[in-house]
Amino acid sequence: xSTILLVEDDADIREIERDYLKREGYVVREAGDGQxxxxxxxxxxxxxxxxxxxxxxxxxxxxxxxxxxSSGIPIIMVTxxxxxxxxxxxxxxxxxxxxxxxxxxxxxxxxxxxxxxxPELKGAEKKITHGDLVIDLDSRSAVxxxxxxxxxxxxxxxxxxxxxxxGKVFTREDLIERGYGKDLPPDIFDxxxxxxxxxxxxxxxxxxxxxxxxLTVRGHGYKFMTA
Length: 227
Hints:
- This protein is 40% helix and 20% strand.
- It is an alpha/beta fold.
- The chain is globular.
């Protein structure tokens, strides 16, 4: 069963969230501040992180960025205000999903389940090569010029979908389903998808502001084009 790192400085809230996750069969590791979170992450095999934004010692943004330097595992960022979600999307800290407090623990469990459940890939090619870009489904890796692209789990799913069908336009709804699976979070919104696309371009494109691979089709969505 998957191991969840639950990072929340409020012990009462953390206890409730922990109990719901354990009830679903997840193994839960806990941290009450940002530094403890990084220590736990370094010492344990973690499959997903639930990360509060406002933490003592190190804030959630710093923790998320530190994890992203070495791992693409799913991260759910928990914030107190919708405006903070907008700010985080602008900062592009690398979270896969965002949840606003207060929320039902059942909602958290659903978000965790959605991110840990890989989208259906029946009949998909195991390895796709376009020029110097290689996408490997088995290793969940994307490599360009021999260098591994630092993608989150959600971003890998989205890129794999588009690379599998060059020239096809995918709507944001298509990308949400591939990125998060069919157990969809109820309030994933367009800016979240746009933020993921922007982050993919940062590592995929030679000039992210002038993309040649991942193109916007205004009013419709995005498509992958071979260079």
